[in-house]
Amino acid sequence: MSFPWAKHYQPTNPFMRWMDEKLPLPRFVYNAIGSGYPVPRNLNYWWNFGVLAGFCLVLQIITGVILAMHYAPNALVAFDSTEHIMRDVNWGWMMRYAHANGASAFFVVVYTHIFRGFLFSSYKAPREMIWLLGVVIFLLMMATAFMGYVLPWGQMSFWGAKVITGLFGAIPLVGEPLQVWLLGGFAPDNAALNRFFSLHFLLPFVIAGVVILHIWALHIPGSSNPTGVEVKTESDTVPFHPYYTAKDGFGLAVFLVIYAAFVFFMPNALGHPDNYIPANPLSTPAHIVPEWYFWPFYAILRAFTFDFFFIPAKLLGVLAMFAAILVWFFLPWLDTSPVRSARYRPLLRKFIWFGFVPCMAALFYLGGAPAEEPFVMFSQLAAAYYFAHFLIILPIVSMVEKTKPLPNSITEAVLSKHGDAPAAAE
Amino acid sequence: MVRLIGILVGLFFSGWLLVTLVVGFIAWASEPAVKTAEHEFHQHPKELSLASDGPFGHFDTQQLQRGYKVYKEVCSACHSLRHVAFRDLEQLGYSEAQVKAEAATWQVPGIDAVTGEANTRPGMPTDYFPKPFANDVAARAANNNAIPPDLSLMAKARHDGAAYVYSLLSGYQDQPAELLKEFPDAKTPDGLHYNPYFANLNLAMAPPLADGQVTFDDGAPNDLDAMSQDLAAFLVWTAEPTLAKRHQTGWPVVLFLIILSVLAYLAYRNVWRNEKH
């Protein structure tokens, strides 16, 4: 669907007319990310991160496919083949650093994109399906990133794989056989490395498929916007191209400056030194930590230290860790407020900036800290707030909050921001 | 219904975490923290400044040559360098002929062309640095049950990389009297050596370097501190021979992208000039 005032694709070039009759791919692109897609005119920089996430996916697929040409997924030589890429393959060091830091960049961008969703309640009707697909993409990204980190077969690769697959061992009755089945053995070895490589190659294309669904679902109601007021008239929108291609182009260029600075000047800043030690099943690292982007969930996992009657603490931690993400699936129904944007929800806004943001900052820090006091106590406090925020505070606040008056339209909001008198009702 | 179940689940997780927190806090506050010798006496690496530091970092080939000499004359007795080939030495400023001659001073595993039996032969530029021990068992047997780790990636495989290598090599000392007074059980066991920069303070490797041990052709200082720095610099190179090229490539890329950002910003302002937003 589109808005009635959306521009129509009218090719003038004879080749493009011929193409449009045979395979209307240019028309499809025109309607998806071209002039045929009307977008609210008031999108701010928070809205740049969807395009950046798409860029990161393409970047990871391209660098990943090239790395796979030189990498050997065999436990005996995987570590050495990674060093071969770093030393002997032309520009191999750049490809590997671009891919490793590309994963971090992808998560930075996606976490920002998700946070935009919290801040502007982008998950609310009529955009629930976009949100649900987005959470699916995030889960797939986590699986892909985890398996990718195993491939260099360093110490953290091996022990990270052991700890994470060990989580399945916490499931009652079927846990241990399930863990052995997943790994293809009692500990991570060649069988596990091979299947992780296979799936690490496959899943990005699954992600690409779900991204297409995500964007398809987006084009049905159209993009949300910072006021949370739906588009009403043509004056509320501008065509995606050239307006947002220009704005996204600027955002992309700034993103690339920061990304390139990491790749070329501090490529190992976000990694762990232990992963430059070859995997050794007989030597356990002092602190086993996953990559930084898993730290909040790792902190939640480790916050559970007591059995709850018959439920062991480990199982409780695993359940909580998965619940921490699964709860996002229910946000469209947990939040009942008729108003979307936190701009007009003063109480929710306070809880987000002074509750949720410090809580996430703490979880990010604590997940990378050693599992000892006082870090565990802070993790327990932060994790308690995390669940309370989504499951208790959000539903109650959305019911009792007195919201601020909404602007009548996007156009009115834009004009009043510029100090102009609101346009007369049209 | 969703909200009711959600609130119950939230109360369960948050509530149990808070119960755990309170119980844990009481236990933590009532029991004095156990102090360990590692916690009290472990030291962070000393400051080290190398030519390869920072975004403009490049290799000081003179220093790398000195570090290589320290590796060859001292470290290579026990530590391998398996990711580095003799051909790589050209990057230290040696000519092709010099590398060929240098490689020939090393004995690498070979096969007798007539009998097919294993033997050794002089190295060639294409060979990698040979391992000092035939296998891990031999390495353990000769080194007080500790396998000397490969040094190729050492500068990337430890926190603070080069500074750690430098501090460890120059940081051996007698066990402080205060340590023994506070922790009588923490006396360094026989056969191990006290070093405050090592994670558990006691290291199987005996102090490998002493003042004046290696003589440098360029007449550079060869006290313990200088040699440790040279070796640390050499290991930065072995860990990432492409480091200087990475920095050199990075600047044009980043400058290009900054200019691109400015142009993209101007294009964005130009496109939006008539649209309020």
From TrEMBL, chain A:
<comment type="similarity">
    <text>Belongs to the cytochrome b family.</text>
</comment>
<dbReference type="InterPro" id="IPR016174">
    <property type="entry name" value="Di-haem_cyt_TM"/>
</dbReference>
<keyword id="KW-0813">Transport</keyword>
<dbReference type="InterPro" id="IPR030689">
    <property type="entry name" value="Cytochrome_b"/>
</dbReference>
<dbReference type="Pfam" id="PF00033">
    <property type="entry name" value="Cytochrome_B"/>
</dbReference>
<feature type="binding site" description="axial binding residue">
    <location>
        <position position="200"/>
    </location>
    <ligand>
        <name>heme b b562</name>
    </ligand>
</feature>
<feature type="domain" description="Cytochrome b/b6 N-terminal region profile">
    <location>
        <begin position="15"/>
        <end position="227"/>
    </location>
</feature>
<feature type="transmembrane region" description="Helical">
    <location>
        <begin position="317"/>
        <end position="335"/>
    </location>
</feature>
<feature type="transmembrane region" description="Helical">
    <location>
        <begin position="163"/>
        <end position="184"/>
    </location>
</feature>
<dbReference type="InterPro" id="IPR036150">
    <property type="entry name" value="Cyt_b/b6_C_sf"/>
</dbReference>
<feature type="transmembrane region" description="Helical">
    <location>
        <begin position="347"/>
        <end position="366"/>
    </location>
</feature>
<feature type="transmembrane region" description="Helical">
    <location>
        <begin position="45"/>
        <end position="72"/>
    </location>
</feature>
<keyword id="KW-0408">Iron</keyword>
<comment type="function">
    <text>Component of the ubiquinol-cytochrome c reductase complex (complex III or cytochrome b-c1 complex), which is a respiratory chain that generates an electrochemical potential coupled to ATP synthesis.</text>
</comment>
<dbReference type="GO" id="GO:0016491">
    <property type="term" value="F:oxidoreductase activity"/>
</dbReference>
<feature type="binding site" description="axial binding residue">
    <location>
        <position position="99"/>
    </location>
    <ligand>
        <name>heme b b562</name>
    </ligand>
</feature>
<keyword id="KW-0249">Electron transport</keyword>
<dbReference type="GO" id="GO:0022904">
    <property type="term" value="P:respiratory electron transport chain"/>
</dbReference>
<dbReference type="InterPro" id="IPR027387">
    <property type="entry name" value="Cytb/b6-like_sf"/>
</dbReference>
<keyword id="KW-0812">Transmembrane</keyword>
<keyword id="KW-0479">Metal-binding</keyword>
<keyword id="KW-0679">Respiratory chain</keyword>
From TrEMBL, chain B:
<feature type="transmembrane region" description="Helical">
    <location>
        <begin position="250"/>
        <end position="268"/>
    </location>
</feature>
<feature type="binding site" description="covalent">
    <location>
        <position position="78"/>
    </location>
    <ligand>
        <name>heme c</name>
    </ligand>
</feature>
<dbReference type="InterPro" id="IPR009056">
    <property type="entry name" value="Cyt_c-like_dom"/>
</dbReference>
<keyword id="KW-0812">Transmembrane</keyword>
<dbReference type="InterPro" id="IPR036909">
    <property type="entry name" value="Cyt_c-like_dom_sf"/>
</dbReference>
<protein>
    <recommendedName>
        <fullName>Cytochrome c1</fullName>
    </recommendedName>
</protein>
<feature type="binding site" description="covalent">
    <location>
        <position position="79"/>
    </location>
    <ligand>
        <name>heme c</name>
    </ligand>
</feature>
<feature type="domain" description="Cytochrome c">
    <location>
        <begin position="62"/>
        <end position="169"/>
    </location>
</feature>
<keyword id="KW-1133">Transmembrane helix</keyword>
<dbReference type="GO" id="GO:0046872">
    <property type="term" value="F:metal ion binding"/>
</dbReference>
<feature type="binding site" description="covalent">
    <location>
        <position position="205"/>
    </location>
    <ligand>
        <name>heme c</name>
    </ligand>
</feature>
<dbReference type="Pfam" id="PF02167">
    <property type="entry name" value="Cytochrom_C1"/>
</dbReference>
<dbReference type="InterPro" id="IPR002326">
    <property type="entry name" value="Cyt_c1"/>
</dbReference>
<keyword id="KW-0479">Metal-binding</keyword>
<dbReference type="GO" id="GO:0016020">
    <property type="term" value="C:membrane"/>
</dbReference>
<feature type="binding site" description="covalent">
    <location>
        <position position="75"/>
    </location>
    <ligand>
        <name>heme c</name>
    </ligand>
</feature>
<dbReference type="GO" id="GO:0009055">
    <property type="term" value="F:electron transfer activity"/>
</dbReference>
<dbReference type="GO" id="GO:0020037">
    <property type="term" value="F:heme binding"/>
</dbReference>
<keyword id="KW-0472">Membrane</keyword>
<keyword id="KW-0349">Heme</keyword>
<keyword id="KW-0408">Iron</keyword>
